[in-house]
Amino acid sequence: MLKIVPLSAENTAAAAELSAKCLKEAWSESTLAAQLKNPHDHTVIAYADGVAAGFLSVWCVAGEAEINNICVLPEYRRQGIAKTMLAHAAQELTEAGRWVLEVRESNAAAIALYESLGFQKAGLRKNFYDSPTENALIMAK
Ligand SMILES: CC(C)(COP(=O)(O)OP(=O)(O)OC[C@H]1O[C@@H](n2cnc3c(N)ncnc32)[C@H](O)[C@@H]1OP(=O)(O)O)[C@@H](O)C(=O)NCCC(=O)NCCS
């Protein structure tokens, strides 16, 4: 069973642990804890049968929702967890008229995810990422 819960002081450690298993630039427990003080932050954790399997961070400011990060543990991918977290955020953030994100040009899985949800390519930031240097695709809907 999949359960989506807000980030809280009780689950920042679990979120940091899963982020370290999923992301090259993992979010530390202190980075996640800082989100708790940000009134614009909407971070959720997806628990699959009690296991913290995914997290999504969105900031929503002045009607624009920016997806900061999303990840799912490798062994839980292609089960609709990312899609479910994004659908949950869309339901919660009814004030968001526009959604935007940046993604590495080579990140085919994430680009396919966003395209499956109706995001379109909206621009490019040249050499935006380090290690390795890579363009960021801006996607929006
Ligand atoms: C991108 C990521 C979050 C997707 O998570 P996920 O839970 O596997 O995604 P979902 O199962 O919800 O996928 C929904 C749809 O997205 C697309 N998709 C997701 N992963 C895909 C892949 N590897 N290849 C092609 N399409 C993919 C498909 O259309 C999929 O629907 P389908 O499975 O019915 O075909 C996951 O691969 C991940 O954690 N990657 C590492 C972190 C990362 O790159 N984050 C993005 C930062 S911008």
Nutshell version of this structure?
With 141 residues, this protein is of the alpha+beta class.
Structure notes:
This protein is of the alpha+beta class. It has two domains: 1-96, Aminopeptidase; 99-141, no CATH class. Helices cover 28% and strands 40% of the residues. The chain contains four helices and seven strands; from the N terminus they run E-H-H-E-E-E-H-E-H-E-E. The protein has helices spanning 12-22, 29-35, 81-92, 108-116; strands at 2-6, 41-48, 51-61, 64-72, 98-104, 120-129, 134-140. Strands 1-2-3-4-5-7-6 form a seven-stranded mixed beta sheet, with helices on both faces. Helix 1 (12-22) crosses helix 2 (29-35). The protein is globular, with a radius of gyration of 14 Å. The model has no long low-confidence stretch (mean pLDDT 96). Coenzyme A (COA) is lined by residues 22-23, 70-72, 77-83, 103, 107-110, 112-113, 116. Coenzyme A (COA) binds at residues 22-23, 70-72, 77-83, 103, 107-110, 112-113, 116.
Give the strand tally: 7
Strand content: 35-45%
CATH homologous superfamily label of the largest domain: Gcn5-related N-acetyltransferase (GNAT)
For the CA atoms, what is the radius of gyration? 14 Å
Main beta-sheet strand count, sense and barrel state: 7 strands, mixed
Percent helix = 25-40%
Q: Which strand order does the major sheet show?
A: 1-2-3-4-5-7-6
Mean pLDDT: 96
SS-based class = alpha+beta
Global geometry: globular
Q: What's the CATH first level of the largest domain?
A: Alpha Beta
Number of domains: 2
> Could you give the distance between the termini?
29 Å
